[in-house]
Amino acid sequence: MKTGAVPKGLRVAVLGVGKIGGAIVKSLLSCGAVVTGTGRRRETLERISRLGAEATVDNRLAAKVSDVVILSVKPYQLPRLLEEIRDVMEGKIVVSVVAGVRLSTLSRALEGSHVYRAMPNINALIGRSTTAVAEYTGDKRASFVESILSCMGSVYWIPEEWMDVWTALVGSMPAYVAVMIDSLTLGGVSAGLPREVAFKAVIDTLGATAEHLGKRDIHPSVLRDEVTTPAGTTIEGLKVIEGEGVDAALIRTVEAAARRAAAIGEAIDNEVRRSLNLR
């Protein structure tokens, strides 16, 4: 994982501090940025202040005084936000984490700015997001954007056309993994372990297995075969996984989520274009 770093005194505006926005604020502060967060509710502003950032309801002012602007509002709030800030964005670096809105739309709405599109996941809350960003331009600005996003965790540059699949796989994966962890824990309980013991053991084993695969750089099937002995316990469990179609279900899960991400993205992007009269 690359450790993020930002120039001393860098001013970043995070426009829309919800769950992901709050994680972004926290990570940027830990990297030494001067952060302004925006929100509409008093509780949101108080939470921003508790994190150690400046808090305001004024999106335009926050954007105007910042070097980098991160858009993290809900998709339906984006047209109004873009109208608020578009006349103060000349020359600024903009990173949008708003799901579905395409770079072409953002670039037309914020002419004169340098726009990137990113997709973190909920693990940003603990500084371990796996974040995609589009698209790589190979210049100093791209390296700068990567260093900022690295404050949240690891960063992958991808073509924008992969973003819907990334959303379905990596953006949603914490939910899929949480379901699997819960199911394995319940299996342990059903077989006789106390829940707290089963849960901690599943968490430890899952993390260690992922690290194991990464360090040895082997295909998962290699590790599976190393654990599986003839007529042993593991093969009995694997027969159930195969018989119940768990592996195929996981494949279909990602495929279905990717289709939904694409459909939602197209609808949101069209709405933003319509609202801002972008043709």
From TrEMBL:
Main location as per UniProt: cytoplasm
Positions contributing to NADPH binding: 59
Domain Pyrroline-5-carboxylate reductase catalytic N-terminal as annotated: residue spans: 11-100
EC number per UniProt: 1.5.1.2
Gene Ontology cellular component annotations, sorted alphabetically: cytoplasm
Keyword RNA-binding (UniProt): no
Catalytic activity entry: L-proline + NADP(+) = (S)-1-pyrroline-5-carboxylate + NADPH + 2 H(+); L-proline + NAD(+) = (S)-1-pyrroline-5-carboxylate + NADH + 2 H(+)
EC class of the enzyme, as a word: oxidoreductase
Cellular localization per UniProt: Cytoplasm
UniProt keyword annotations, A-Z: Amino-acid biosynthesis, Cytoplasm, NADP, Oxidoreductase, Proline biosynthesis
Ranges for domain Pyrroline-5-carboxylate reductase dimerisation: 160-262
Associated pathway: Amino-acid biosynthesis; L-proline biosynthesis; L-proline from L-glutamate 5-semialdehyde: step 1/1
An example Gene Ontology molecular-function term: pyrroline-5-carboxylate reductase activity
Biological processes, Gene Ontology terms: L-proline biosynthetic process
Superkingdom of this protein's organism: Archaea
Family classification: Belongs to the pyrroline-5-carboxylate reductase family.
Known role: Catalyzes the reduction of 1-pyrroline-5-carboxylate (PCA) to L-proline.
Protein name, per record: Pyrroline-5-carboxylate reductase
Species: Aeropyrum pernix (strain ATCC 700893 / DSM 11879 / JCM 9820 / NBRC 100138 / K1)
